[in-house]
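Sequence only, no structure available. Ideas?
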Amino acid sequence: MLLVKTSVKPSKIHGLGLFADEKIPKGTVVWEFDPKFDLVFSEKEVGKMSEIEQNLIHKFAYFSKRLRKYVYCADGTRFMNHSNTPNTDSVNFSNKQENCDVANKDIEAGEEITVNYRDIDAYDEKSKEPYLNG
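Reply:
I predicted one. Tokens follow.
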């Protein structure tokens, strides 16, 4: 669940992106897993879904390295775009069920919030295709 004020807008990186609506100081937890807002599906459950549902999961969810399941965020988090130089890091807090996204620098209001997909998604981690954006 997002813990900062954000909005979804057209992105220069890809399609829609998640943008800060307030200044987010370095070290702020931007997102943390909340089972009330973040849905979790096993690979078997996804395999039983309709084609439309599977496409939604494959486009907007990530396969958690920690949970070994798909995580679909019901809020704007699903619009966070990839960057090879993201302004958030996926941080493993031992007392949390899933990693949290923490600002690794001050993020200004109006700035797009980004993450390195390969740090959070077990399937992207194995991809040999380079990401074209910065």
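The radius of gyration is 14 Å.
Hope that gets you unstuck.
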